[in-house]
Design brief:
The complex is a heterodimer of chains A (290) and B (336).
Chain A (H helix, E strand, L loop, with lengths): L1 E6 L7 H11 L5 H21 L4 E3 L10 H6 L3 E8 L6 E7 L12 E3 L2 E4 L10 E6 L1 H6 L2 E2 L3 H19 L3 E6 L10 H6 L1 E6 L14 E6 L2 H4 L3 E9 L10 H5 L8 E6 L8 H7 L8
Parallel strand pairs in A: 1-2, 1-13, 2-7, 4-8, 7-9, 9-10, 10-11, 11-12, 12-13
Antiparallel strand pairs in A: 3-4, 5-6
Chain B lengths: L5 E2 L9 H4 L7 H22 L17 H4 L2 E13 L2 E14 L5 H9 L6 E5 L1 H6 L2 E2 L5 H23 L4 E6 L10 H12 L5 E7 L5 H7 L7 E4 L17 H11 L6 E7 L9 H12 L7 E5 L8 H20 L2
Parallel strand pairs in B: 1-10, 3-5, 4-6, 6-7, 7-8, 8-9, 9-10
Antiparallel strand pairs in B: 2-3
Helix pairs in contact in B: 2-11, 4-6, 6-7, 8-9, 10-11
Classes of the chains: A alpha/beta (290), B alpha/beta (336).
Chain lengths: 290, 336
């Protein structure tokens, strides 16, 4: 079986970047300086994932204060509410309050925003391994307070995602749906616009999708339940909630090798749940799958 | 006669800058001296505010509630900080072997309060379930086993605190902010907290939980939990308007319903000030919150406290919040 490695989600910040953010929050350095630091840190990350020979990796999202915030701040009609717990973790995010889905702001250029480090939203790498990252539409809504008609809001959000894809010329996109999947039909148009990797949480037993192209990949815990909806199914194996190094990828993939010729091997959660020093080592755990 | 409407703090209070800015740099005797000075200054503030129970003077000997105990254990290692939110981090330990306590966590605080001859003390300790939930488990078979291992360590710690305190009753507050984050694990909360106090006489056990999405989970296990006082956050979820329904305090009624089913008395520590905002709740607002709770609980079963530790606020704001709480309490007490 051919194994393809994928690292997705927010990557933990270095001590240097954390300190720089501390200074930026206190007004000791300005937006341009912190932006320069984010660029430098992103380059270090790209060197690392290339050294680890990862087949695919997302943007490190070093300037994302949580997995929703830059997108929430880019769309008129969405404001930030109180801190909310992310699942059963000790990590918190600002709960978006969605009154309506208005216009999309500039996500490409340097821009100072309230309550998040400056944009651009992504620090792109010109590489076929690079994936843009977007929070899943269903999870975005599950993690927000939404006023009004939910299906209207969902479709509005999809239209903004399509605008982001078009304005950035996104070729490969990773969508992260950590909450219980229900209906993925909302991604039909997105799958037609770009090559999409979908990472899902919870059970995929209720997986439902109508119309549109297949996903390039769906990555979850039970490939049998979603393999027919994608070209290359994937599984989440590299444990982001353990500091133990060595996830024994080959051994874990063996039982699947009789049914699948090619699979993606990914992390279970953002490496942001790990200390940086451990994340930098775990990046090389994916090699066990090559 | 039992004291009524006892005012208390929850634990932490903002450290003076001379302590916080060099907390990790001070060593040995120098640290002891500076932490003692900060404790005494904080005690002055508490006493000036009129607070009846002074805790341990704002936890000046501790950097924070998780790192302090785990850095005094074997079998657990900190590899680096992990993000809590935005650019805020905490040091998350990795359990790689059987855990053991290698030195006391808080006994120096008890020694200080003995020396100061203060009796109205409540010592907070971090609960076993939260210690487990906030750690990487790379060694124990499952989360329950790790929580019980922390429970045994906390039992050693509380036993030693009690021994250092002497014959009088010692109030011990077990802090379990993570207690209700996984409804399916309430049995682990129950067993590990009970393990922490098993066989220790002469203590009054408090439990502090905050920002829960469902206190009902906690109330369900209350009949079997070896806890006498539940110090809970409420103000954060209550409107600040003076009149109208006290929405944030709906769970007081549920607490009363559960306590009515029990054959021992349990008390409620009512969070009456929000520790996440500088807004100073006027005494009238706090008074309304207390009076609402008194519809359900007798005054000797009701204690009053901030929602959580006041370290999140400046010392000035923290003091003002405590003072308003005491003013409100005194006004209500006069009417009883």
């Amino acid at each position: 079986m051919e194994l393809i490695s994928l690292l997705y989600g927010i990557y933990p910040r270095s001590e240097g970047l954390r300190k720089a953010y501390g200074k930026w929050e206190k007004g000791q350095i300005d937006g341009a300086e912190i932006s320069q630091k984010i660029n430098e840190e992103s380059s270090v990350y790209y060197d690392l994932v290339r050294e680890a020979s990862l087949n695919y990796f997302t943007d490190p999202l070093f300037n994302w204060y949580d997995i929703l915030r830059p997108i929430a701040l880019s769309i008129e009609g969405i404001t930030l509410g109180p801190l909310a717990r992310y699942k059963a973790t000790n990590t918190f995010y600002r709960e978006p309050e969605v009154a309506r889905i208005g216009k999309l702001g500039d996500v490409k250029s340097f821009r100072e925003v309230d309550e998040n480090p400056p944009f651009p939203v992504y620090h792109e790498l010109d590489s076929e391994s690079y994936l843009h990252f977007l929070p899943g539409i269903n999870s975005f809504l599950a993690m927000s307070k939404v006023k009004g008609d939910i299906s209207e809001v969902r479709n509005g959000l999809k239209r903004r995602y399509l605008e982001i894809i078009e304005s950035l010329g996104i070729k490969r996109l990773l969508i992260y749906e950590p909450f219980e999947p229900k209906d993925f039909s909302v991604y039909g148009d997105i799958n037609e616009a770009t090559s999409t990797f979908l990472v899902i949480g919870g059970s995929a037993g209720k997986f439902k999708i109508d119309g549109g192209n297949k996903f390039f990949s769906i990555i979850g815990n039970d490939p049998y339940s979603y393999a027919k909806y994608c070209e290359v199914p994937g599984v989440k194996i590299i444990d982001a909630l353990s500091t133990r190094i060595g996830d024994d990828v080959v051994q874990k993939m063996k039982p699947l090798s009789t049914d699948f010729d090619k699979m993606i091997v990914a992390n279970t959660e953002s490496f942001d749940f790990l200390p940086r020093v451990i994340a930098d080592k775990k990046v090389f755990s994916f090699k066990g799958g090559e | 006669m039992m004291e009524e409407l006892i005012t208390q703090e929850i634990g932490s209070f903002r450290k003076p800058t001379y302590l916080s800015s060099k907390f990790r740099s001070y060593k040995g005797n120098e640290f002891q001296e500076v932490a003692k000075r900060a404790t005494l200054e904080t005690l002055d503030l508490f006493e000036k505010s009129g607070l009846m129970n002074i805790g341990v003077g704002g936890e000046m000997y501790r950097w924070e509630m998780y790192e302090h105990p785990i850095s005094r254990m074997d079998g657990i290692k900190i590899f680096g900080p992990v993000r809590s939110f935005d650019n805020r981090y905490y040091n998350k330990g990795s359990v790689y072997d059987n855990i053991e306590r290698n030195e006391p966590f808080h006994v120096e605080e008890i020694h200080l309060f003995r020396e100061l001859k203060r009796k109205n003390v409540k010592i907070p300790v971090t609960g076993p379930y939260t210690l487990m939930d906030w750690s990487f488990n790379d060694h124990y078979k499952n989360r329950a086993d790790l929580a019980m291992a922390f429970g045994k360590i906390m039992n050693q710690e509380i036993r030693e605190l009690k021994s250092a305190w002497g014959d009088e009753i010692l109030q011990v507050q077990i802090d379990e902010p993570a207690a209700t984050t996984r409804p399916e694990e309430m049995d682990i909360v129950l067993e590990s907290v009970n393990e922490s106090v098993k066989g220790i006489g002469g203590i009054e056990t408090h439990l502090h939980v905050c920002y829960s999405t469902d206190y009902g989970l906690l109330f369900n296990i209350a009949p079997s939990l070896d806890v006498s006082v539940y110090n809970l956050e409420f103000a954060n979820r209550d409107p600040t308007s003076l009149s109208g329904h006290r929405k944030g305090y709906d769970d007081v009624k549920r607490f009363k319903e559960v306590s009515d089913t029990m054959n021992r008395k349990i008390s409620l520590g009512l969070g009456v000030t929000d520790i996440h905002r500088d807004f100073l709740e006027p005494p009238q607002l706090i008074k309304e919150r207390i009076e609402y709770a008194l519809k359900f609980l007798e005054p000797d079963r009701l204690r009053l406290n901030p929602d959580c530790g006041l370290r999140t606020r400046s010392r000035e704001v923290g003091y003002e919040k405590l003072k308003n709480m005491v003013i409100a309490r005194d006004e209500v007490a006069r009417t009883l």
